[in-house]
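Action item from last meeting closed. Structure (171 res):
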């Protein structure tokens, strides 16, 4: 059976960021990046049109306990999110003996082009394989061609150029 992913109390550090569970104090930062047209669309969801949408998503992140806030190491500002999702097609299989996740992520536009998401995804992969002892990691539905998430997927070899889902396997 697929284990439940829970990041409660987990804090990950990169050179420029801290990845931590979302908190109530992140609401304004979440709305700031998630309300910009083009940001959510890169991840497959519509940008937030009001603070109430961000409040509902923040609550979902906190209750779900599998989405990290990507925060600036110096200021603490939430710049994006990175979720470790149980793929729905695996969640229902009671006899599944492997443990893995689908990585989904989004980063505010002012932070694009700096290598921050690549840094965050590399740390998340390390965390999943070395600390959670996952057997596999994949990226879900491919983002639109040419968007920042596409370039990260290629850099980290999570999906193939043909957009067929590929997996990183713990070996």
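Sequence:
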């Amino acid at each position: 059976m697929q284990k439940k992913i829970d990041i409660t109390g987990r804090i990950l550090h990169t050179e420029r960021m801290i990845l931590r569970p979302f908190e109530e104090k992140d609401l304004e930062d979440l709305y700031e990046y998630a309300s910009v047209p083009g940001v959510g669309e890169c991840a497959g969801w519509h940008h937030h049109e009001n603070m109430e949408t961000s409040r509902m998503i923040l609550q979902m992140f906190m209750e779900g306990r599998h989405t990290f806030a990507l925060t600036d190491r110096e200021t603490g500002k939430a710049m994006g999110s990175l979720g470790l999702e149980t793929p729905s097609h695996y969640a229902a299989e009671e006899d599944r003996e492997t443990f893995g996740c689908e990585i989904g992520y989004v980063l505010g536009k002012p932070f694009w082009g700096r290598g921050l998401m690549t840094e965050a995804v590399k740390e998340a992969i390390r965390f999943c394989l070395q600390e959670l002892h996952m057997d596999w990691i994949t990226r879900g539905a491919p983002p639109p061609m040419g968007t920042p998430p596409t370039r990260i997927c290629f850099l980290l070899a999570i999906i193939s150029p043909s957009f067929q889902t590929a997996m990183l396997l713990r070996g």
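Note appended to the action item: Strands lie at 12-13, 17-21, 67-72, 78-85, 100-107, 136-139, 167-169.
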